[in-house]
Write a structure and sequence with these properties.
The protein is mostly helical. It folds into two domains: about 140 residues, Serine Threonine Protein Phosphatase 5, Tetratricopeptide repeat; about 110 residues, Alpha Horseshoe (Serine Threonine Protein Phosphatase 5, Tetratricopeptide repeat). Helices cover about 60% and strands about 0% of the residues. The chain has a two-stranded antiparallel ribbon. Helix 11 runs antiparallel to helix 12 and helix 15 runs antiparallel to helix 16. The chain starts with about 25 loop residues before the first strand and ends in a 5-residue tail after the last helix. About 50% of the residues are buried.
């Protein structure tokens, strides 16, 4: 399930381009729907926003939220979003809701987030419908209600919103707010996956691997895992490594398995770290190296992976003191280089 709040034009998924933001001396036609002005894009935006032009107020909010052409400043982003939102600008209302939900530039306030999302969904804005569905699914600012979550996800999904299509698929797969229905889950996953949504691509791979709602097909599973893995989706990289390790849907290839495990392990995935440790410990797809085996097991064990912990306890019995010290040093260096685990 996607657990993220979507603010249009905040982040990369739903970026609304504002052409020429970095250009000076751009001739703008009717910059505030009233005149022709020869000025820089930024100065023009500020001038028009200060006269109460909602689209430019919204654009300035996006710029301050992203640090695009101006210093990043959530407080200023909120100020401009609010001015546009109070004039009924649906995208600004949604983004203001996101700022309240995440506590960016304002104190975190789920109730206020819901209020602004509702104003936006009254205009049929898909991102706000998705966000309101999230609030109902998790009980943030409203009473938890899977049925209401499904209702809002469906409205957004029917507008082609990929994240909502994916979440609606997950609701059908888990039977949350709707009867469990793998066929419907697959339908919504596929619509989302065909738009390039990595989580949906991964989950479509899972249903093909297990034959849930579709005929079991390892080749199709690999295809969808690969599409998600190519977007650096760690669990898909891990699963693709498993498919190569087992020769399911692809020829067995330990070196390829190692490659995909490594990509996921470098993102901090403990399952991939454990399997990469196993490959090093056994010399499968890489030269056998107990130091690297211990290092990867150690990193996975630190995240609570019990298999990695047991394997470390076994291989340390055959390692020298120098090898153990080197493995610990490498583990420490990796953690220092990946403070957030990736």
């Amino acid at each position: 399930m996607v657990r993220l709040l979507i603010g249009a034009a905040v982040g990369t998924l739903f970026l609304v381009p504002a052409d020429g933001l970095a250009q000076a001396d751009v001739l703008r036609l009717d910059p505030c729907d009233s005149a022709i002005i020869h000025m820089s894009r930024l100065r023009g935006l500020i001038s028009c926003a200060e006269t109460g032009h909602a689209p430019d107020q919204y654009t300035l909010g996006v710029m301050y939220a992203e640090g695009n052409g101006v210093p990043e400043d959530y407080g200023e982003a909120v100020r401009w979003y609010r001015l546009a939102a109070e004039q009924g600008h649906a995208l600004a209302q949604n983004n203001l809701g996101v700022m309240y939900a995440e506590g960016n530039g304002v104190p975190e306030d789920y109730g206020e987030a819901v209020r602004w999302y509702r104003l936006s969904v009254e205009q049929g804005y898909a991102a706000a419908q998705f966000n309101l569905g999230m609030m109902y699914e998790y009980g943030d600012g409203v009473r938890e209600d899977d049925g209401e979550a499904v209702r809002w996800y469906r409205l957004s999904a029917e507008q082609g919103f990929a994240a909502a299509q994916y979440n609606l698929g997950a609701m059908y797969r888990n039977g949350d707010g709707v009867p469990e229905d793998y066929g419907e889950a697959v339908r919504w996953y596929r619509l989302s996956a065909e738009q390039g949504f990595a989580a949906a691509q991964y989950n479509l791979g899972v249903v093909y691997a297990h034959g849930d709602g579709v005929p079991e097909d390892d080749g199709e599973a690999v295809r969808w895992y690969r599409l998600a893995a190519d977007q650096e989706y760690a669990i898909a990289q891990f699963n693709l490594g498993v498919m190569y390790s087992r020769g399911e849907g692809v020829p067995e290839d330990d070196a390829e398995a190692v490659r995909w495990y490594r990509l996921a392990a470098e993102q901090g995935d403990p399952l991939a770290q454990t399997n990469l440790g196993f490959m090093y410990g056994n010399g499968d797809g890489v030269p056998r190296d107990l130091v690297f085996a211990y290092m990867w097991y150690n990193l996975a064990a630190a995240q609570g992976n019990e298999t990695a912990q047991r394997n470390n306890e076994m291989i340390e019995q055959v390692m020298t003191r120098e090898q153990l010290a080197e493995a610990q040093r490498l583990s420490t260096e990796w953690i220092e280089a990946h403070p957030s685990g990736n």
